[in-house]
Amino acid sequence: MSSYLLETLRSKFPADVLETHAFRGDETAVIRKEALAGAAAFLRDELGFDFLMDLTAADYAPRAPRFELVCHFYSTKHNYRLRLKCPIEGEAPAVASLTPLWASANWFEREAYDMFGIKFEGHPDLRRILMYEGFEGHPLRKDYPLKKRQPRIPHRD
User: Fold this and answer.
1) What is the arithmetic mean of pLDDT over 84-94?
2) Chain centroid offset of residue 70 CA
3) How far is Cα 80 from Cα 98, in angstroms, rounded to an integer?
4) Rounded CA gap, 39 and 137, in Å?
5) Other C-beta atoms within 10 Å of 145: how many?
6) CA-to-CA dists, residue 47 to 33, 84, 107, angstroms
7) String of b and e for 54-91 (b: at least 16 CB within 10 Å)?
8) What is the C-alpha separation between 135 and 47, in angstroms, rounded?
9) How far apart are CA 59 and CA 72, in angstroms?
10) Could you give the percent of the chain with pLDDT greater than 90?
11) Contact yes or no for 138/92 (Cβ under 8 A)
């Protein structure tokens, strides 16, 4: 079944699938960020992936592209998984939000925004979720200074 999924995705998005690979039952497709929303909708609507298990990111600085968005999907009907990865360039990384497709993307995307500074275009409430509002920077970026002093949180009575 796994090669079927990757072949189907590759045939539906031939210009957008950059590579595919499978290892020990984990199928992965690397796609262009511009195709993320369309590919995710195709996975949900046509291939039965009804569960967005996780969405996270990685910072590979100084390598280009610097960031990689990683989404894990699961089909409860067919009992198979698929991982989509999207390379994201630039100092102001951005990609389309998956919240119109899965409500669970809301908090996943907020965490990726908070920790890595990746903006999700079309997100209904993109704000910090783990760090406080006055926190400066994104702590999981490789260029985040380890000894950076942060503004104090105002005391509330």
Assistant:
1) 94
2) 4
3) 20
4) 31
5) 9
6) 20, 14, 24
7) ebbbebeeeeeebbbbbbbbbbeeeebbbbbbbbbeee
8) 41
9) 18
10) 82
11) no
What superfamily in CATH does domain 2-121 come from?
Answer: NADH:ubiquinone oxidoreductase Nqo5 subunit (3.30.460.80)
Q: Which residues, including other chains, have CB under 8 Å from residue 20's CB and lie 6 or more apart?
A: 6, 9, 10, 27, 28, 29, 30
How many residues in the chain? Answer: 157
Name, in order, each residue with C-beta under 8 angstroms of 53's C-beta and a sequence gap of 6 or more. Answer: 72, 73, 74, 81
pLDDT digits (tens, 9 = 90+) for 2-20: 589 999 999 999 999 999 9
Both structure tokens of 141: 């970026």
